[in-house]
Amino acid sequence: MELDRRNFIKGSIAVGSLAALGGLAGCAPKEPDAKDETAETAEKKVPEEFTDGKWIGKAMGHDNEVITEVTVSGGDIANIKVLRCDDTIGVGTVAAPMMAEKLLETKNLDVDAVSGATTTSMAITMAVRNAIENAGGSASDFSKGPVERTGGTAQTADVDVVFMGAGTAGLVSACRLLEEGKKVILFEKQDIPGGSMSMTYSGVAAAGSELQTNYGLGRFDDNPMFNKDAMLAVMKKYIIPENDRFNGAMPYQTAMYDNSGKLVDWMHKIGVGFYSLGVNKAYGITPYLAPGCYMGGCGYAMQYLVDRVGALGGQIVYATSVTELVKNGEGRITGVKAEGKDGSTWEVSAKAVCLTSGGFAANNEMIAEYYPGYEEYKFNCAPGSTGDGIKLGIAAGAAVECMGRELGAYLSTTPQAGSRFEIAFLYQTTPGIMVNGSGKQFGNIMSDNHGVMSRALRNPENGGRFFHITDESGYITTMKNEAYAMDIYKCLVDRGDMVHYDSVEAAAEALDLPELKATIDAHNQHALAGEPDEFGRKNLPYLDTYNGIWVVTCEPTLYLTTGGLAIDTSCHVQKEDGSTIPGLYAAGDVCGSIEEKDGRVYAMGFDAAMNYGYIMAETVKAEI
């Protein structure tokens, strides 16, 4: 499978996390001046007919504005270039040039979006449409109806290992197996790889790694961030007794932390960079190590692993769904059948079949079945999370576990700018308070943010409306937060999601928040007294309202499912009686939360996917 056309960055070193966003802090717009033709507000001159030349088009993407350049020659589109796309690195940044290429090849604005990045694809299409109209053309001339994918053929393959899904766990595991000389093929139903990896906000547990040891030099041997036993002791405090099947032993988390040092050192050795934010109060005494928590590192690391799969002789087949697990007469899983969007079919024989296809947050029917009461809410998740691997596992005799427990939520903006933009850490980067539809606080967003926001979303007393309130200092740290090295939220101003009001009273009136002033006054009293508020939140930020306040209209958004296939700590898929299904393995969100299996609430899905992807490779390697 050819990978170069997907514009993956070869040999790149990951140094950060989510998408780096453009945009500047907003000033009041300049009044139009008819004599000032250079002003941004000057009206564009649109020719009366489709005119040759280079033309700029703009549209709102997932994070911020995307900008395209369309070259018109001889009254037709000659070239399309993406000049700016600040959408999620590894998702939007991969899909944007692919979408531009599809539009150029077909010269059809109705061509299918790049699956896995629909919002960015639509934005690129709208920006190209805008450029056509700016050139004096008619978009209807380039709207030719849907284009059917064709050209698929029947294909077969005989490999050592076949993967269903090219996300975090699949890519880590595939690279490990390819390094051992195994023949590997991955099927990815989306047009782009990565699953949830590029969308991840997370660091990586690194206790026991050479990387952490070299940093600590023995100074912090008893600190949980450096000592895995101390870390597990902390984790044990969060076990929910009624969900504990192992009398506090935590076998799944123990396996993860036992492996984490090896994972980190392996990734570092093969060339995945780690971004240390240094020592600061945000992280205690340890550097924050990640194949990127912030500024796109997870997306870059994903692209690096994809390129490594190809360099080591592996194959990723895109836009192709696994439809069946093949079983022999003895009950062993011996391969898969798959179907491509172009009509192609695949029959693959393998010594091991690995399910790495993600959870099911994008499957409303499965949500209704396994998490009744949550189906009315939209999940902001990887679009490929439709539970296909779970359903195939069940059909093969697998058990599912940890279903129906409380799901967490993070923050997103409301879709007033055309898309929901994730602001999961806004409460950290932008000191302030969260209020509901009447202007009252509803919980401690610092101690249990995911749980507090999930419960707030489902509580009708909050009115389904939420607002993050901050002051001038919070506005400044939103533009660039030093403690977390983040500036991805600065686009909130460009998008119109962060709004300034001259006074608390003006905000309360405009947003219909009758309790807002009393809430801020009570909060500030606690802050000045240096005491916790009624929810137990400590170290409260004082909100200076002298120059008004800043408000982000937002909503808690559910983002993943934590139940999934039953596995043992070696990634064998299990039946209801605890026996394993020969030849079938699983890792990542298809198995649900590793912490939930131990009786805790979900916490570190990215760590679990990477570590159990690594563990699965070691198991498969030993058994085939």
Question: In summary, what is this structure?
Answer:
This protein has 624 residues and is of the alpha+beta class. Helices cover 29% and strands 18% of the residues.
Description:
With 624 residues, the protein is α+β, with helices and mostly antiparallel strands. Helix content is 29%, strand content 18%. It contains 17 helices and 18 strands. The chain has helices at 92-106, 118-134, 168-179, 210-216, 228-236, 251-270, 297-311, 364-370, 388-395, 426-429, 449-458, 472-479, 491-495, 504-511, 516-529, 594-597, 605-623; strands at residues 53-60, 65-73, 76-84, 154-164, 184-187, 315-317, 320-327, 333-340, 345-355, 400-401, 409-413, 433-435, 466-470, 498-501, 549-558, 564-565, 572-574, 580-586. Strands 4, 5, 6, 7, 8, 9, 17 and 18 form an 8-stranded mixed β-sheet that branches. Strands 11, 12, 13, 14 and 15 form a 5-stranded antiparallel β-sheet that branches. β4 (154-164), α3 and β5 form a beta-alpha-beta unit. α1 (92-106) crosses α2 and α6 (251-270) crosses α17. The longest helix is centred in the middle third of the chain and has 20 residues, at 251-270. The two termini are 25 Å apart.
